[in-house]
Amino acid sequence: MSNLLTEAFIFGKAFAEVMTEKVEHTLTNILSDIGKFDAETKQRLEEFAREVKARAEAQKQQSNNPTTITVTADSSVDLQELLDELRAEIARLKAELNTYRQKQ
């Protein structure tokens, strides 16, 4: 009878040791993954913040140095005639576009 008790005790002790090792290993892996995730998240947030800051600085530079367009009036061109020609060209393009759409 004492032999059975000894075997049961040894078996129980071995079972507890293996379970403890497995739990330690699993817990270590989980904590490691959480640490990696945290570090990667912080890195991504820092990169995002740097990108936002760079874009904001670029837009700030553009607003500080606005591009100006200078148009000089050519007195030899009649503006009303130019507008009429542009309107006629737009009308022709609309007609061609409608014809194209009807063919499809």
Describe the secondary structure blueprint for this structure:
Blueprint: H1 2-64, H2 79-103
Can you describe what's shown?
The chain is elongated. It contains two helices and no strands. 85% of the residues lie in helices and 0% in strands. With 104 residues, it is an all-alpha fold. The mean pLDDT is 86.
Summed up:
This protein is mostly helical.
Describe the structure using short key phrases:
mainly alpha; 2 helices
Q: Work out the helicity level.
A: over 70%
| Number of E-type strands | 0
Beta-strand content estimate: under 5%
Largest sheet: none
Structural class label: mainly alpha
Number of helices: 2
